[in-house]
Amino acid sequence: MSVKKERNSAKKKWHWLAYLLLLIGSVAFLYPFVWMVSASLRSLEELAVSGMSIWPEHWRWGNYAKALTAFPFPQYLLNTLITTVLPIIGTVLSCSLVGYAFARLKVRGSGFLFVLVLSTMLLPGEVTMIPQFILFKNLGMLDTLYPLIVPAFFGSAFYIFLLRQFYSRLPIGLEEAAIIDGCGYFKIWRTIFLPLSKPALMAVGVMVFMGSWNNFMGPLIYINSDKWKTLTLGLAGFQGTYATDTNLLMAAAVVITLPCILLFFTSQKAFMEGLTFSGSKES
Amino acid sequence: MMKKWSLIVLSLLVVIALSACSGNGGNTAQSSSNSGGNSGTPKGKITFAYWGAQSEADAIKQAIDNFKKTYPDIQVESQWIQKDYLTKLQTMIAGGTAPDVMLISAGDLPGFANAFQEIEVDGSVFSSASLLDSMSVDGKVYAAPFIIKPKVMAINVDLFEKNNIPLPSKTEPMTTDEFNDISKKLTAGEGATKVFGSEPLYLGNWIYAFGGQFYSDDLTKSALGEPEAIKAAEYMVASKLEGIVPNDTEKQGQNMMNWYLGGRIGMFTDFGPWYLPQMAEVQSFKWDLVPFPGGGGSKEVNGLALSKDSKNAEAAKIFINHLTQNEETQKIIGGNKNAYGIPVLSSATSAFEAIYPDKNLKAFVLAAEKQHSQEAQKRTNEIGNEMKAIDDTTPIGIGQKDVKEVFPQVAEKINKILQQN
Questions:
Q1: Which residues face B77 on adjacent strands?
Q2: Secondary structure of residue B161 in the 3-state scheme
Q3: What DSSP designation does B137 have?
């Protein structure tokens, strides 16, 4: 008993060090965000001389009104929501279906196909940018939101890999029992694998959300009209070639970043579970 | 049952959202091909691409609105590209959807000339004959000058008064020796509060203050090995050694404009019109503008180019002529509070000077007329890679080698690239 107590007290002795390190880490990660909020409430002149300080001398709440009326915020927000929500649905459906097939349907050539799918991850985006642009031009989809949505419904190598790993770990008995009960592969995927893979699907959803919400290059290349522009393009409007309206940029950035932060706090547990179980992160 | 309904509702949502994503069936990137048929004035739609921050885009939109009033039969679809302008332009050109009219800087023009049509422009209407030269490649004009962005020097008047230094002339540039002397007088203090005479000097501006330039007049040879360029480089190195400009450690990760705004820089030499809206808010010290020392500095000229593939070229030409040669439009673009740039027509420069009447904006107008244009070559990236040696190996940057040794070597390497053209 005393040995256990001693061990516990020894552990507790080190707890403070762990907390201290975590605290330092938290401050280091939190500081840029706090600075961003602080910068959003300052004048450009004050921003220039503020250095590391995070307490504004004069709180300029008007920066937010100015930043959010500098571009058609509601329109850009709606476009961003459409180009975020639909790709999440598309990616989750297509990648889980393909991932399930690679994990469970053992047919000749499936291994080769899987390697082929993975090999597409080696292609940098810059290489496929112009061919993809020409493709969407020939489809008559330039200056619409389609190029930002449609590709998600055709799967993505990384998410296919992630979900295949997840499905590979599920007990084979589940599938066998369903087959005995007369289920086809599609019904097995829909009624058994999809519900069981919620953590992995959440992880995929969060990653697609982050990618789509912050997507800059896609809207930049495919969108010309103001009515289809997204929030990232609105943000870029505060940056000139040589000078930047940093305070307004930060005010708009705070508002645009909020959904990402909320999503992180609400789904971090499921996100970590999904990644861990999929084998994409060392557990 | 519920699940089935959820699936149906979800599918419907997807279909509705997708159908809402396109109001025009795509294809807006392509211009219409109506050039007016038998009627005299061209009609139809043209597309116009330009870059810039929101404030700059607002200025251009006002100029477009003015054009629409004069030519109601020509519709202008504006394509404002907030960032990575050249990437988008390259993609559109490669994809065969290049806009009819494109804003292009003189520095980028040689690299894009193949995508543009040669145009006829009367150079005599512009404020400076050199403007048309900067819009030319191999003797052919590919764009009409639209706006000028020269460099002047912003001074902290309070620091001058505090050090009993007479204010510089508003029209005549101080000499490089005078600049050096004043910088020494302004420099004071130590550490985090040290005040410097100037921000680190930039070769792209100072080479002209010593009569040098980057290339020979016919752009076939590098002039970096010439005595004037080396003299400019030695002057820059000396300013660092004397401590009148921040050294590499001091300037690391710092924004020099912020230092100027914070009162730590007495003379900010790399001052373009884009800083004016920011400076207009300054209340903590008095400031003004004077010409660039030694007649140096370089001006960025932006022009309007016509796409080689334009399907409504006649209307596009009218648009280009209107934006570059119509006095009222030039006054709109130049007189915008956001200080987009200096008009290319002498008759319109008064609009620019009137933006901030209590500041010496005349310095910009004089610089727009006299300053050397930014020099450009087709193989910018390769030349840029060779130019890195200046920063990497000489005290202008982080190196130790003598500029007299390095500059001729860099010139030789650039010449080899130019010979491959």
A1: B47
A2: helix
A3: E
Q: Which residues in chain B are closer than 8 Å to A49, comparing Cβ atoms?
A: 258, 261-263, 284
Within 13 Å, how many C-alpha atoms sit on residue A242's CB side? 18
Share of chain A above pLDDT 70, in %: 94
Would you call A221 and B28 a contact, using CB atoms and an 8 Å cutoff? no
Q: Which residue has the tokens 């989750």?
A: A92
Q: How many CA atoms lie less than 13 Å away from B120 in the CB half-sphere? A: 1
Where do we find the tokens 């994809």? B95
Question: Above 50 in pLDDT, residue B65?
Answer: yes
Q: CB distance B261–A239 less than 8 Å? A: no
Cβ separation A144–B26 shorter than 8 A = yes
Angle at B209 between CA B203 and CA B210, to 5 degrees: 95
Taking the C-alpha atoms of residue B4 and residue B8, their distance in angstroms, rounded to an integer, is 6
Indicate the residue of B54, B57, B262 with minimum beta-carbon distance to A48.
B262
Give how far A145 is from chain B: nearest CA, Å.
5
Q: Are strands B140-141 and B136-137 parallel, antiparallel or unpaired?
A: antiparallel
CA distances to B164, B178, B217, B245, B291 from B173, in Å: 20, 10, 24, 20, 5
Residue B142 neighbours by CB under 8 Å, 6+ apart: B109, B113, B116, B117, B118, B119, B135, B136, B303, B305
What pLDDT, on the 0 to 100 scale, is given for residue B33? 42
> What one-letter code names the amino acid at A234?
G
- Spatial distance between the Cα atoms of B206 and A121, rounded to a whole number of angstroms: 47
Q: Is A72 helix (H, G, I), strand (E, B) or coil?
A: coil
Whether residue A104 has pLDDT greater than 50: yes
Lookup: tokens for B359:
């500041």
B126 and B301 Cβ atoms separated by less than 8 Å? no
Contacts of A240 in chain B (CB under 8 A): 52-53, 55-56, 274
Ordered DSSP codes for B242-278: TTSS--HHHHTT--HHHHHHTT-EEEEEEE-GGGHHH
pLDDT at B18: 46
**DSSP assignment, residue A152?**
G
Model's pTM, two decimal places?
0.84
**Residue of chain A whose alpha carbon sits nearest to that of B76:** A225
ipTM over 0.85: no
B415 by DSSP, 3-state: which? helix
Cα-flanking dihedrals φ and ψ of residue B283, to 5°?
A: -125, -10
In terms of Cα–Cα distance, which of A124, A283, A102 is closest to A189?
A102
Distance between CA atoms of A24 and A183, rounded to whole angstroms? 54
User: Nearest 5 degrees, angle CA B232-CA B238-CA B243?
Assistant: 135
